[in-house]
Amino acid sequence: MKRTFKYALSAFLTAALVMPAFASQDNFPDVPENHWAFEALARLKKDGLLVGYPDGLFRGNRPASRYELAVAIHACYTNLKSVTDGLDSQIKTLSDKLNGVATTADVQNLRDALTALQNDVNGMKSYGEDIAQLKKLADAFQKELQSLGVDVEALKKDLGDLADRVTKLEKRKPVVNISGDVNILMLAGNSRDGSVGLDKDAHFNGVDLNGNASGMTTDLVTIEEGAFTFSGTNDTGPKWKGTVVIGNMLGTFGGQNQFNFGATNGGYIQGNGDVYIQDLSVKFDSSVAGLNFDAEAGRVGYKISPYILQRIDSTSYFSNSRWDDGLYRFDGGILGFKIGGAKLDVFAGNNSKVNSVNGLALNPLQSGPLNGAFGGYPIMTFDRTLGANLNVPITSSGNLNLAYLWLDSLNDIPVDGTGANRLAIYGGDLKFTFSKLTLSGGYSKSDLKENETIVNNIDNAAWHVEGRLDSHKWGINGGYREVEANYLAPGDWGRLGIERNPTNIKGFNAGMHFDLSHTLTLKAGGEWDTGKNSNFGGTTGFDTGTNINSWHADLTWQMNRNLSLFLGYEDTEFTHLNGAVVTNTPGSTSASYKWATFGMGYRLSDSAKFTVQYQASDVTNDYQVIQGGGGRFKGGLLSTQLSVKF
């Protein structure tokens, strides 16, 4: 083995064994700050594992001698032994204290100490493999270590003991694991040229409570939310977890799937503080009649695909996995059966009772175009869900997903002169992946019912095909889709302007991404649609003469490990709309949405991030009015988000 390779291996091993720390400026003078190993070398020097040469230089391009490597191995071993000895001492001290605990303060002190100890143990998860590598190096450099006065046999025995002790330490864990995040979001809108702005979520920006144009000091809200997830740490038996959320995020946005489309005045109004249970469930594995299955019961979440069942993220200006995961939560259960390589999920539950302490719905199960700009079916909200989802592998490259949903509503909605209280949705998706090429497509239908009688099963289908080619530094994709006017599903198949889940459309789409450099990435895409059917122009706003052209471009610059800058632009144009549904300027048949965004993201630490962005809007839309005014919206929205995970 070449000396340079052994040197690199030793440096990597030593870096893995030391505890994480921020890079120090007190580094070797001949190591530039932009060098890939700068932070690792700074940590090694700070912990005394690398000392450099007598002149203070590191001389990284010079091959290391075997004696120099032996010194590094011994220093690494000494450092590791001190860590494990310290943990053993802490465990003994805590055990002694447990025998004499008497007061609440003592209990709290013990909890704090146990938390700190657990963090130390968690930091040692990868030590087992590192110790094994260190033992191999001790064998390889036995002669050099002996010349330094090191008892190699004792060192190897100690390393074996260390491996056993680390294994035992890894098994010491609390009964309950606690994690979560805290988020602080600020939104401030402004008007421009006497007009209020309109953002992508159809909220007005720069408007006071009376609907008048205003500045950021008037139209400003601060929103806070903290989530605490508790989960069992048992390796065998049923697994349980639960997430409790506290804050005013839900009150501000009115539920995780509700929108402000068509509002007559007001922008973001800060909601009241609230508490809700995001999820709380128990999951276990078992078998019935020789069938492998798993079961989860409680408040659970589920999704299938964008065109069948997937929750919409109700805000484009807040990034969080709880809000962005696409899962619908319901109180019920999920049974998953494994049949060969296939998986069948059967799920059922109640959606109407998934509320906060203040009575707000977490994620109302809704179908229909979520708009207010161009009309459409009334939105249906369902109370109960029953569904089945079958996933079948096709060869080693393909996958078929089939689904059937039954959705019930306690209240009728008027449709075509009658009522409707049920919706059946059925269909599937097919996907094949061949190296860098992915081909996919899907077809689904929705039958609107009044009890068991079908109210509408005409023009009620959606289908789509896509292709994607990805390379190392670039990728392209393209597709075609048709969504008929009567297709209703609680999915998330896209946004055109401010309209979510548009129907009565057909057209092509394309996109690309390209790494201009290792720090600069460009993404762009577009969609070109027409109205599919003229019979529904009075409700959807689209007929066969309607044209919809939408495109967007985003540029991201990763300046360094912590700081990134981004720019974005989006433009959607509607022409030859059906004038029958115009509410403000009869005869107008066009609408235009333009948004320009710029901002930055800063990584404060491994668990904390801060982002700030400003989005300017320029919208012409005579279909959406405010306080009886015109359909021109010019303004902007400043948003900041601080996220801390624990």
Number of H- or I-type helical stretches: 10
Backbone shape: globular
CATH superfamily of the largest domain: Porin
| Overall pLDDT confidence | 80
How far apart the termini lie comes to: 43 Å
Supply the helix-strand structural class. Answer: alpha+beta
What Rg, in angstroms, do the CA atoms define? 30 Å
* Biggest beta-sheet profile: 20 strands, antiparallel, barrel
Architecture overview:
With 646 residues, this protein is of the alpha+beta class. The protein folds into two domains: 3-174, no CATH class; 177-645, Porin (Beta Barrel), CATH 2.40.160. 20% of the residues lie in helices and 43% in strands. It is built from ten helices and 27 strands. The strands form four sheets. The chain has a 20-stranded antiparallel beta barrel. A two-stranded antiparallel ribbon has the order 2-3. Strands 10-11 form a two-stranded antiparallel sheet. The model is unreliable at 1-25 and 256-265 (pLDDT under 50).
